[in-house]
Structures are given as structure tokens and as C-alpha cells.
Amino acid sequence: MRLGLTSFLKGAAIAAALALAPAAVDGGARAQGHDVIHLPDTKFTFDGVFGTFDRASAQRGFQVYKEVCSACHSMRQLSYRHLTGIGLNATQVQALASQFQVQDGPNDNGEMFERPARPSDRFRRPFANDAAARAANNGALPPDLSVMVKAREGGADYLHALLVGYEEPPPGVTVANGMHYNKYFPGHQIAMAAPLNTDGQVTYADGTKSTVDQMATDVTTFLAWAAEPELEQRRALGVRMVIFLTILGGLAYAVKRKVWANLH
Hints:
The structure is a single chain. A hairpin with a 7-residue loop joins strand 5 (180-181) and strand 6. The two termini are 20 Å apart. The protein has helices spanning 2-20, 55-67, 90-97, 130-136, 148-151, 155-164, 212-227, 231-260, and strands at 29-32, 35-38, 101-104, 113-116, 180-181, 189-190. Helix 6 (155-164) packs antiparallel against helix 7 (212-227). The protein contains eight helices and six strands. By secondary structure, the protein is mainly α. It folds into two domains: 1-23 and 229-264; 24-78 and 122-227, Cytochrome Bc1 Complex, Chain D, domain 2 (Orthogonal Bundle).
């Protein structure tokens, strides 16, 4: 009986630890050969055990994605209906989805056709296929951004740093043709030109001043939410599990003391 209780407590403790684990590995530094890149700590609202997503920032981030990033990058794991998770209501999602045309079919004549998107549709891809994407980007394939925050070491800090890390190469550094210098990208040469290159590039609907750093923070917040929309619920479950285990542990200890008090 005691062994069974111990095993249960260990298993529950592991489950709680996994629930409270951060979504991405802390990328304080990245190694590329002998080159170590130190990422700035951006201090996002969703950092830490009790962190939550800033819905206003995530909505602005979606606006940045829609107006800037979606020209090259897809988000095929997301449907328009998922945007209710950043605070949009059903009417707003319906109106937003209807702005896009998606391919459907075949119809009764066996032909494919386009129609306005519905909330249940996945985000529209900017290119028909990978070959078309490479042809439009000098051979480089823009990655899907659905889970990019979890796919890169450093997570949100890395993506934010990448977006603000474009600058002129230092003296003596030659950048290959078609490449761009970025101080936070491994190897420092990246095919993607700076997507956020000037303050005011996006006019925010809520009136927030759209500096390059603000836009980078907002779109990273949106991408972090997209990669793990259940983060807040998972953390809340973890906290409840810790409270439960604390109470259960206290009760188990009290029962043990009571049962064994007269057995000497």
C-alpha cells in the first residue's frame, strides 16, 4: 500500500513538472563553430510559470503577420477560427476570413474553384507549393511559421532578436550575393531581407506606435501563442497539481504518523 502511494506521488509530481515546464529552451547563447551568439532577454509577458499572453499584443502581432509576413510565410497549422484564442469574437473572425480566397472543389462540373474563406479553413498559403515559393525567393524556401517558436533554440527570444538584428556588416566581413547580415543569425548571413525595416511600417488598429521593436515583440507574441495556444491552461493545470500534491502529501504524512504512532 505504501509503495503504491509512493509511486502515485512520484508519477503525479512528474506530470506536474512537465505541465509547468517552459515551452521552449532558454537560448541564452547559440554556437556556430567557435561563434557564440548571446540573445537579449526580451521579457515577454508569457515568460515564467505564471506568465500569460498579452491578447492586445497578440492581435497586433497577427496584424503584422497578415500585412508583412504572410506574403512569404505560411501558417498551415492554424485555422481562422483559432483566432478567437487571441480575443477576436466570432463575427470578427468571420469577417476576417472572408477577406481571403481559398481553392475548393471539384464542383459538379469537376472543376476547382475559389471561394471566400470560412472560419474553419486553414490560413491561406502565399504560394501554391514549395517549388513556387522557391522560385519567388531566389531558391530559398520560407519556412512555415506555425510552430516556429518551438522549432528554434532560444524560442521567442531568438525570433525577436532575429527580427531586430539586421545591420550593416562589420568591417572585413563580406556578405554573399543575395544574402543579408544579421548579428543574431547563426553564421550571420541570411537569405531573408529585413521584414520589419522602418518605424510605422504597420498602422496598428489600436493606435499603438509601431516601432520596429514593438512590431517584432508583437509578432513574436502572436507566433508564440500560435505554437502553443494551450500554454496558459497547461500552466494552470500544473499549479493546481502542485497544490493538490502538497495537500495530498500533508494528508499522507498525517495518516502515516497516526497509523505508526503506537507501533514501536
